[in-house]
Amino acid sequence: MPSIADGFDGFIVDLDGVVHLGWEPIPGAVDALRELDRRGKGVVYLTNDPQFARTAITAKLTGLGLEVPAESVVTSGWAAAVKVSDGGAAVYVIGSEELRSEVTLAGGRVLSAAEAGSADRILVAGHTGFDYDELRAACRAGENGAELYATNRDATFPMRDGPWPATGAILAAVETALGRTATSVGKPEPEIFEVAKSLLGGGNVAVVGDRPDTDVLGGRRAGLPTILVGGATPADLVRPDHVLPDLAGLLGDR
Q1: The pTM is what?
Q2: Which of 14, 49, 120, 154 is catalytic?
Q3: What is the chain's pLDDT, residue by residue, as a tens digit (254 residues)?
Q4: For residues 157-189, b (16+ Cβ closer than 10 Å) or e, as one string?
Q5: 16 labelled catalytic
Q6: What keywords does the record list, in alphabetical order (predicted)?
Q7: Active site residue 213
């Protein structure tokens, strides 16, 4: 009997909650991904976690036993960095040091909190060092007309001890303080899925993720088949094409 994997040439695979939890591998996930590679299936990893640079993600995946080039990883942080850096813009970043590095590599000029008043754009991302000083700096930038962007709107992300606050929680404070809505770059916006698909070089591509509100909704917006794993309950308006317990289910008989 053919497996679900047999019906596709490539996969856009989420990381948190699909491949790992807190960078501890989910049982069976690494073996399933190795088998997809053995069968000649293309895989691009797409994550809304903006804390890490793509090179750091590949290093972590190597630590899990997966050989993955940086070009096969798309993060909401990297995609947002490319967008806000357009034209060599001056950017005030609420986010990790690695995200600031991504903005610099993309050609943007990263501003300190003291320089935020001269920012062309503000980029908001989840990170554990968020504080009131960053919020004040964003207010100064916004007051002077800086455009507001966010890597994504996820309220939380999964960890083994339960959900942790993510970009959306921080963004809510910034949007409230500035009185306007940010342009979000990450999932479920279709553009980031289109970027990921382009890296696979065509063919029949499916999205694999554990969240109906980001992975499934975003895949549908991009016109791609969707596969929900991990036990989440599909929402009526964003029902996936397939529901599986885990990544290994891609390889089993239909």
Answers
A1: 0.92
A2: 14
A3: 789 999 999 999 999 999 999 899 999 999 999 999 999 999 999 999 999 999 999 999 999 999 999 999 999 999 999 999 999 999 999 999 999 999 999 999 999 999 999 999 999 999 999 999 999 999 999 999 999 999 999 999 888 899 999 999 999 999 999 999 999 999 999 999 999 999 999 899 999 999 999 999 999 999 999 999 987 777 667 889 999 999 999 998 55
A4: bbeeeeeeebbbebbebbbeebeeebebbbbbb
A5: yes
A6: Hydrolase
A7: no
